[in-house]
Structure formats: structure tokens, C-alpha cells
């Protein structure tokens, strides 16, 4: 086994190089090795300065998520950072590539920091529902102030070290790729100038404007108050404490806050969502040795909104798009839609005018047969284009709803806004088909999931189960408005009845229901209410165009069933979640999906299921499978074929397991 920390001494400088490929994740063995290497360097009288660098593509670019589920092995990150800062010999962090997760904590604990000009730093911990746990909330604001520190810590993104908000973290920049030489050169300069250890805990540059610091805290607190997530506010409170408390007390607050959040449901859910999205992508990748093609020119055949959205998504990813149909008027309307999107994006400052112009410059439109020429891959966005000839060997993939024998792609609508694409694997799919699908999805910067299906999608089935259970609850006497309100309050803007109004009730009117149950969309359509576009559906239209509850609709509904006492919000939500989890188990039993995490990824990326809830399967685990099963057991409704708990679910309960055990 190779050394996790490679140590060498040159001209009195001990260079400690992290070597834990591929990302130098700060695992317990690496922390132990670095702590030991530091101790050895401190004990070596020939060493006058210490430099810490990372081998490979970055200083430290990955987290060790497994430790978040249990107690940390010693030394933990906070202890290691304290050992670095308390060193009686100057410690220099030599940064390159990405400096993320605990890597930023270590860098901040060093006495000096130098960085390759292309270095990016960040603190993604907020995306896992936790605060940093190596002192970043205390050291970073001491260097760059509250506003910049919060931009980094709460934003969760990476930032170039030579630009705001990260500007001021490092002491010097270099362009050479020889990190070791740069480390030695900087350390020699320190010695020549007589500069010794300089603890970040003693830095005050970020506190110079004390009143301004507190103004930032109060402004950001008001901005974060409406968020359902706990971690952003907790980070803000730690950053506030950096100014108000001694360093040791601030570190203690950070440690306790981290521990409280780590054990909470939000962090557990966010950690599982984080893992799910990555594993779902790995599971979608074809298991073949053949090289993955890189597509640069996408042909889109067929008109309509789907085609427009696909074009925007591809243009955003840097692809050239050749869009063709047999009807020029369709293209005119489509271009107006695309142009309008870019104009609005510029107005909202989501994209620069130069970038918008460059992306639109990659769009060609015309006759389908002409546009199909010169394409690497072709997406069929509508029926009626299968006879259009294309380049020999170019993959052709259907993106519109249809029966699937080989492969198809289902982009979560709207395709230019949502990140999910389902790769539908039909019974006749070949490795070449799957490679083409995966390569295109990857090229378009989307999250893929692979589904064994002849036409149905995971998102489609999960949302159908939500709507079916919502109708059952109305059958049982609940108000559609109370059902929508309960889901909204829980954090998911997927209110089923408001959604139907927005999309038109006729789209939902043919969905199957039990013989004694009712499709309430069909019922309202039959009574002349078709949705928002036709003057109202389940809701009326308020003076400002908003949806408002309508007593006339409740009277219509109550004419055919008996209203009952309102169920508590948590009971409504849990009953709907139980139905969705049951449908997911049905898909698992039928081998449509291989892991529960695929369902979670589909719903988070494709239906904006609250990420901090982890997805419907994670939410079910955290609420409790037995509790949710009881929600279904007590339903007095004839649609038992739909909601009766599946055998696989009951077996999990019997054996003390949860859905996550199937991942």
C-alpha cells in the first residue's frame, strides 16, 4: 500500500504531500497519516518550515460521507486543524485544483496559503445539511469578513481564489505547475523575511468594520428565515459567533452545531440524496468496454414545445443544434419561443448577452431532411419524422411519449429547466443503443437514470400514484384544497389539484380509478370546468389571476359524496407518501428500477421533490415504514389493488429493514 502522505525535506522545508487518489478525501487513515507526518516534522530539528500540498488534480476535492453516519475516528478534522494552527513552525498550505470540504478547513488552519492561479475553493457542507466541522465558520470570516464568508459557506459553490468572494484567502498566487518548487520558494522567502507562525485565529482583517459585519448578519438572517433548511441559518449563527466569541468558544459552537445537524433528519435526507444522484448516474452508465462517443451536433426532428425545450437545453450545453420539421410555420413559432426564453434570461441576468448570442449562433433551422444531414445524433421530438433520412451510423432516439421496443429518452418537463432524463430500456435494447442514450444525456449535462420499460416512466408512475391517492382522499370526504395546502406546507410544491388546473383537467380525466372510486378531474370536466385556461377547474380565478378555492366546486363534489372532518396535515401527507412508496415498491418488484435511490433521484431532479426531504423513499424511511403502512391499512376504500401494501414492503417491516437497505 502506498503512503497516504509522502514526506520530503529540502533546504529545511518539510513538504507533506497528500496522496489519497483520486480526490484526496480526508479519511481517517489520511488524517492519521498527516497528523503523524506533522509531528515528525515538528520533531525534526532540520525542519524550519512545513508545507502541505495535494498530489493529483487537487488539494482535497471529496468528502468522506461514511463517517457522517457514525462517530469520527481520531484525529477528527477539528483536531487536525488545531494541530496545524498550533504548530510552532510556520505551516504553508499549497493549493491547486479544487479545495473543497475539509480541504478548505485545513487550508484556513495553515499560517499561510499560496495557490495556483486556477485554484477554486468552496464549502459544500451546506448541501449535506451540516456546517463545516474543521473551523471554517470561525477562521474564514476573520480573513474576508461576514459577507464573503457567507457567500462561500451558505452558497455551497466553488469560487476562484483570485476573485470575490474568495479573494483574500491566499497570500500569493503562482502559475507554475511545480507545486513543490513553489512551496520551497515561498518558505525560503518566509525565512529570509523572518516571518514565523501566523495563526488565522488571530486575524482581524474581516472584523475591521464591526458595525458593517453585524449589518450583513442581520440582512442575511432576514433573507434566510424563509428557507426550510436548517443548515444555512446555523452557518450564519456560527459566522456571527466568530465576531462575538473567543476562538475556542466559536469552535465549540461550530462543533456542537455540526453534531446536532448531523443527527437530524434533514442532514440524513440530504446525504442520501447526494449519494443517490451520483449512484443513479453510475447505474445508468452502460457496462461496456466500448468508448463513449462525444456528440457535438444534435438533430431535432419535429415541432412543438418539447422540441423548443430540447433545443435550448442542448444549446446551453454547448452543442450545435439542427432543428428540422416539414412545416415552416412550426419552426417560426418554435424560434419565437426560444428567442423569448433567451431575452427573458438576459433580462433576469441569468445569462450574458454575449453568451446568449453565441448559443443562438449554434442553432440552425429548416427542412427536416436538410437539417438531419451532418448530425452526430438525432432526437425525434414528435411523430411523423421517422422516414427522414439521416447520416449513416447516427443514432436516432425518440424523446416523445410512445411505446418503446429498444430505447427512448424521457426528459423531465420542461426539458430546459429540469435536470433529469430517464433512459427507457426496452426489451430489444442493445449496448450500442444504451451507449448512445447515455452519451447524449451526459453531453447535455443532465442526470440520467436507467429504467426498464416499454413506455412508462418513473416520474409518470410516481405522479400518477400521487394523483390517484389524492382522488381517493377526496372520495373519503377530504377537501382538495386541504390536500393541496398540506403538501405545500410540507415543502413540496406539487399540489395535485392546483397542478391539474394549470395543465388542464382533460389531461388527467382518463386516468384509471377503481370501479367505486371517482376521477374527480373527469367529473369536473363533465360539469364544464376544465382548468385555469378555461376560467377555472378545481379552483376559481382571483382578481389578480391567482387560484382561489371555489365554494361552487365544493358543492359539486359534496353532491356526490359526504364531506368528512379534515384530516391533520401530517396524515394527509403521510397517506400520499405511503401510496407513492407503494408504487415505487411495485416498480422494484417488477424490475422496472433496480434501486430505491433511482426513484428518489427521479423525483428530486424531475419533479422538484424537496431535496432536504431526500426523496419519497428517504422520507418514507425517516417517517417509518410501519407507520406509513398503517396509513394505508386503515383506508376504507375499494381501490385496494392500488394501495394495498406490497409484499416487498411488508417483508422489509417484518425483517426490521428499510428502503435504504435495498440500495
From TrEMBL:
UniProt keyword terms in alphabetical order: Isomerase, Lyase, Multifunctional enzyme
InterPro entries: 3-OHacyl-CoA_DH_NAD-bd, 6-PGluconate_DH-like_C_sf, ClpP/crotonase-like_dom_sf, Enoyl-CoA_hydra/iso, NAD(P)-bd_dom_sf
Occurrences of domain 3-hydroxyacyl-CoA dehydrogenase NAD binding (ranges): 298-381
Any one GO molecular-function label of the UniProt entry: (3S)-3-hydroxyacyl-CoA dehydrogenase (NAD+) activity
GO annotation, biological process: fatty acid metabolic process
Catalysed reactions listed for this entry: a (3S)-3-hydroxyacyl-CoA + NAD(+) = a 3-oxoacyl-CoA + NADH + H(+)
Name of the protein in question: 3-hydroxyacyl-CoA dehydrogenase
